[in-house]
Specification:
Layout (H helix, E strand, L loop, with lengths): L18 E6 L14 H9 L18 E3 L8 H10 L3 E6 L5 H5 L7 E5 L21 H4 L4 E4 L6 H9 L3 E3 L4 H7 L3 E7 L21 H14 L1 E8 L8 H19 L1
Parallel strand pairs: 1-2, 1-3, 3-8, 4-5, 4-7, 5-6, 7-8
Helix pairs in contact: 1-8, 7-8
Bound molecules: manganese (II) ion.
The site of manganese (II) ion (MN) has 7 residues, from loops.
Amino acid sequence: MGGKKFMGTDSVKYEDAEYAIVPIPHDSNVSWLAGAAKAPQAIFRASEELERYDFDTGANVSDFKFATLDPITYDKIKETVERVMGEGKIPISVGGDHSISIPILSLLPEEISILHIDAHMDMREEYRGNKLSHACALYEASKNHNVVHAGIRSGCEEELENARQFSNVLANYRDSEAILHDLGENVYITFDVDALDPSIMPATGTPEPGGMGWLDANRILEDICREKNVIGLDFVELRPQEGFHFCDATVAKLLMKSIIYLES
Ligand SMILES: [Mn+2]
């Protein structure tokens, strides 16, 4: 069966971990196709097949201290991530749809900048009567945080107006230098995998043509993780599909790369 832990096994005991992988199998707040709740298990299962040694950086992820928690429900997100941060660990949450980021972002002190990597702005105040929709993931947080959006290629006038009102930055994902300039020193990264082009990431609920390539995603993660103090990340909106297991592997590897980039 497999798929219970990132990389199949913890590299250290949870108490000693610097990175806590938090599975959040939740998808009741999507607008189109559900299924993202199956992502944590699919990502962990795919991660078991990855080499620990990373060819690009020459690092071995098992040299770094990570441990996976048991899956949590939506109502436990806030207390779990708060506890992990209070223990001085970096939470890497694995959704689930993008609504799982809302309680996490609500925990962040105001001085934390948010890097939002996504095809969609997610800046609606509410969507189809639901303020906790994945289409609203960044709205509340934008009121009192510096938010930089990258990869965006879909949104409505209301979202653009909201982003302007809260002084959000719409960045070019290829321009790391500008993004580094626009972010403060301490950064939280929320990564919706539909930021990637549907040609490499078809397994997502709301695909949008014209997105990032694999190397683009790595470059932005590497540059931000190296240059800033990243206090947490989440990866959301993978919707595993039969025959598209390369998408599970893609997210698993992004997660592995993030840990390596944070260490370098
Ligand atoms: Mn999205």
